[in-house]
Structures are given as structure tokens and as C-alpha cells.
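Lecture 7, part 2: worked example. A protein chain together with MRU.
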Amino acid sequence: MLDPVRWKTRSGEILAARPAAGGEVPPGVLRIIDQTLLPGRLVYLDLERAEDIADAIRRLAVRGAPAIGCAAALGLAAAMQTVRSGGADYLRSLRERAARLEATRPTAVNLAWALRRCTAVIGAAIGDAPDSNAEELNARLRAEALDILEEDIRMCRAIGEHGLPFLHAGARVLTHCNAGALATGDYGTATAPLYRAHEKGWKLSVYAGETRPLLQGARLTAWELGRAGLDVTVLCDGAAPALMREQGVDLVITGADRIAADGTVANKIGTYGLALAAQHHGIPFYVAAPYSTFDPDLEDGEAIPIEQRGAEEVTRCGGFAVAPENAGVWNPAFDLTPAGLIRAWITDRGTARNPKELKTLCSDHE
Ligand SMILES: CSC[C@@H](O)[C@@H](O)C(=O)COP(=O)(O)O
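Predicted complex, written out as C-alpha cells:
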């Protein structure tokens, strides 16, 4: 069984998208919040088979770079419970399931990072003891998956501490998409300093861009921050530059799906536009991410694979047609923000002011 790890807000509510969030979970099951139904309904999904876990990641029932890494690792551990043969057969089954999970979403590097960590650990265990049985290997795999989750929790907390100095009581903060508790194992990345500030009793004004086409900002960020007691205002994506000009914003902070060695950040579509608007208005733009989001092997950010998603995400909204069915659609899930537009990268290992510092902080990526 996957050990339950619980996280509660100050008001005592269980919030994060993590296994066991809804109570006791039977052996070999990954329990997640179905984020596609929020904020209307809080529904948990129990997933057992690698295909179902892959499907949940693909259709964004669980989403956000760190969360899909954790869910894939824990899901892999759950799905492997039914495998009976040990040794090389076990490794073959593991690699086959991991490949299926890794193929679901190409941009967020945390997914590949977590799955490769799991396969490497089992490869090494079998290298040391080729006759290991499935039970022993399952225990090792489960421990590694839980380690990934626990490390993510620690990283969120550390990002919160490193990001806190950029805030002050009364700060007006704009964020995009959902880089919060729902997107990680704990506090979130971009939201971690906001939760920390809130815990200290600082009153913030948080602005959440709605984040078309799937509205992660409006549906998820506004939901989770509101539940935790933060003051949150939702705006249409197109309203962000006017907000900066007319109401004033002290800083913009977003998460990341992958950061290349040159500091380029891939994040939810619309991030680049926010960074350009922030530069125009002299507003600092920060990116918060754990080291597992840094991809030191990718020198040039332009090489980050950008996931293209289905046309219906753009032509339909909430079940209604919002564009003609036959209109052409361009629907990249992410865009690239160059390093020159980023004031600092706030990581679990400290804050980097330029790509060189970032590489020094984060380059021992496993
Ligand atoms: C801490 S999550 C950072 C990013 O993963 C987040 O900002 C984002 O772009 C998520 O995109 P999504 O398509 O919802 O998975």
C-alpha cells in the first residue's frame, strides 16, 4: 500500500493532489483529485492500471510539472503491484509501463525525471541482486516513489522560504496558471512564498490570470488560495497588462514546466506575454521551480519540446462552442520565456539571478 501522506492548510483542510488525500487507499491504488472537475466538484479517482494513470495525466486530471512527476512515480509503483515475476522480467515490465507514462506529456521534465529515477533504482537493485523477487522490488520501488513525493514536499517548503524576501505585507502579486498545491506534492512553487507570507499574517492581493484555454488559474489557483484564506482576484488573461498599468502590480511570479541551461522557461501558454508586459511596466518577473524542473542537458531553450493539444480545448468551453467547429486552431500548451525577461529563478536551493548561477545551483540533476 502507498503510505498516506497528508497535508493540511491552516484551516485543517486536505488540499493537495496526492495519494491518499481522500482517506485510506487500498493496496496498489493511486488516489488523486480529478482536477478537471474543480472548482465545481471535489472528486477523487482511484487508479490502478498504468493505462488509467497515463490517461489521467494526459487529460489533466492530475497536472502541473511536479505533480505529474510524483503521480507517475507513485502510479508506477501502484501499477507494478500486480507483477509476479522478479529479476529481468520485472525490469522489462517496469520499463514498458514507465515508457507509457512518460509519453503522456512531453514538456514538463519532472515526469521523465521521476520515472527515470524509478527505473534507475530498480535497475541498480537487480544489478546487485539479479534474483530479487517481485515483492522485494515492489518495496524498493514504492520507497523510491515516496521519496520523490517527500522530496517534492521539502522542495516546495524551501522555495517558500527563498521566495519570501521578494514579498511584503500588502504586496500585489500576479500569477498565471496553477503552480500551487494542486500542481505539486505540497505548497506549490509560485504559490509557496504566498502561502508562507499568509502564514506570517501578511495580507497579500493575489491576481490569478484565468489561463485559457483550460482555466487552471480561474478554476484551480483561485479555488485553492481562496480555501486557504488568501485574497484572490481572477482576471481574463487579456486584462493583465491593463492591471499592471491601471491598478499596479508589485511582482509577477509563475512556475515552470522545464528550464533549459540558458535560463529559458517553458511554462503555461501566456507566460511569455506576461513577462513582456511586466518588462514594459518595470515590474519584476520571477519563476519559482524545484531543481527537478531544471534540464541541464538542454543548452538552448528553443529545443524544449512544446506540447500541442487538441483543437476542442479552444473551440469549446464548459461544453459550449466558443468558436466555429471548422475554424483552424493553434493550441500550444506552453510558451518559452527567455532569460532576459526573468529577474530571478527561485529554486529550492536558493535564488539565481542569472542562468550561470542557476546552472551552479541546480546542475546535479539526476
Ligand atoms: C508547479 S507547476 C508549474 C507548471 O507546471 C504550471 O505553471 C503549468 O504550466 C501547468 O500546466 P498544465 O498543462 O496545467 O499541466
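Residues 60, 63-66, 108, 177, 179, 183-184, 188-189, 216, 254-257, 267-268, 333 surround MRU (CB under 6 Å). Confidence is low (pLDDT under 50) at residues 1-23. Keep this in mind for problem set question 3.
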